[in-house]
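Let us work through a complete example step by step.
Step 1: write down the sequence.
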Amino acid sequence: MLLGSHLRRLRESRGITREAAGYSIRASESKISRMELGRVSFKTRDVEDLLTLYGVNDEAERNALLSLAREANVAGWWHSYSDVLPSWFPTYVGLEGAASLIRAYEVQFVHGLVQTEAYASAVVARGMKGASPADIERRVALRLERQKYLLSAGGPEFHVVLDEAALRRPYGDREVMRGQLQHLIEISERPNVRLQIMPFGFGGHSGESGAFTILSFPESDLSDVIFLEQLTSALYLDKAEDVTQYEKAMKELQQDSPGPAESRDLLRGLLQLS
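Step 2: predict the structure and record it as C-alpha cells.
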C-alpha cells in the first residue's frame, strides 16, 4: 500500500495517465490501479520502468523505492499459518500489523487481540466444528502471536468497545470466562489500550450494524481501512465516504459508553457475578 501510494503520487505529479503508465510496463490501466492500491505483488522490473517513466533518476530515491518493492513481496510471518486460515484473513493480519491505531467494536465475543488462550480455544473450537485439535491449536497460536504486537514496546494504540453481550455470552466453562474478565481488567490498564463496555442499559446505539474494525496507519498518505468480517469472506472498505460513516459510529460508541475506569468497574461487577 505504501509503495503503491508513492507510485501514484509520482505518476500524478508528472501528469501521466494510468493508461500510459500501464503501456510502459506492458500492462493494463487496471493493473496500474491495483498496484497503486497495493492489491497486487510488484515485479522489480515494473517498478524500475515506472520510476524511469516518472523521471526518478536520483540513485538514493530509486534504491529506497526498489527496496520497498522487495519488502512488499516478502511473505509475512502469518503465511506459515495459511493452512488453517480462510483465504481472506491473511490480508487483515498484515494490515493489523502495519496499523498504528486500531479501533474496534465487538458484539459476539471478546476481540481477538485481548482474548486469553483458554477463551480463544473455546471460540475457535466453536467456529471450526469438526477441525482437528492440532488445527485448532494452530489457529489459537496465530491469535496469540498477533497479541504480541499489541503488547510490544512499539505496539499500536488499541481502542475497543465491547458490547455487554460479548461478556455475558459464555465461551468455555465458568473458569474460562472468569479468567477472560480478569484479563480484560488487567490489560485495560495498559497505556496503549482504551477498553470500554457498552452496557445493555443504554439501549440502542450506533453499533447496530454489527462488529467492525478501523485500521489507521502511520503514513499520512494511506487512508484508513474498515474491516468487516462475514461468514465466508470479508470486506475491506477505504472509500472516504465509508470511512467517515464508520468513524462517526465509533466516535458515538465511545461517547455513549462509560469511560475506561467505569468500564473496569462493570467488568469487576460481572466477575463477582460469574
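Step 3: interpret the result. The chain has twelve helices and six strands.
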